[in-house]
Fold this sequence. Notes:
mainly alpha; Na+/H+ antiporter like fold; globular
Amino acid sequence: MQFLLVLLPVFGIFAIGYIGQKTLGFDIQTLSKMSLYLMSPFLAFDTFYSNKLTMDYLYLFIFVLGLCLVLVLLVYFLSYFHKYQNQDRCAMILSSAFMNNGNYGTPVVLLVYGTAGLDVAVVLMVLQQLIMSTIGIYFAAKGSPDAGGFKTVMNRVTRMPVAYGALLGAILQLVHISIPKELMTSIELVGNAAIPTIMIILGMQLALISFKNIEYRKISYSLLLKLMISPVIALGFTLILPVDDMTKQIMILVAAMSTAANTTLMAVQFNTKPEVVSSATFISTMISIVTLPVLLWLLHPLS
């Protein structure tokens, strides 16, 4: 019951966006641009500025980056086997390689492992944000119908301000530059608003989906990779990285989280099959209600 209570706010915010789009109608692309360019950079800055950088970041960065790259390679293999086009491949990568360990994973870790686990979850959230704002943006831009060549894609990636916000936050923390309280309050307000805004936009995108036209095979592959294969890959990383047992369990748990809501934002912004990415995000979140308790039951003997 406690686990389901954690999910209620998530689905409640999705519902707000869904109902709003059905009743009022919004320009989703403009809203996604606002969130991606104006709000998310402040969230990234606040996250990297406020959370102390330690050696744990290195081990967990290896994990987050390695997990992402392995899943990307698996999508490339499936795409080659089924002869998927570039846009389909990039949409599947957005659906499979990035986990929702922020507004979903962090509360679950807090519920299961307490405040000690929360520290690990926050580090993973920070690093996942960095990976999504670089690798995620790259594949979103690459999958755009008007992506162009490699140089054009990289120009789009380098114009995205999220990574710069994260980098600036980390630099200011390392050089011990203090930000005035009034300015930091403004940054936190905008950053904190980014996550619910992204979730509302996902709900809006779901309102536009025709479930008769869902590409079930591609979404099924994405769900299999995200919810089943990803935690197995994470288990492999726990065998080689020098982290404690609780951290190992949290790594496996967050790897099994549903698709990150931010990927829908990116898919909408670059028109990279947003119906596939948003469907995978929503369905993976629904299925995780079953898969995560099973995984927690399997992890319990390790604790």
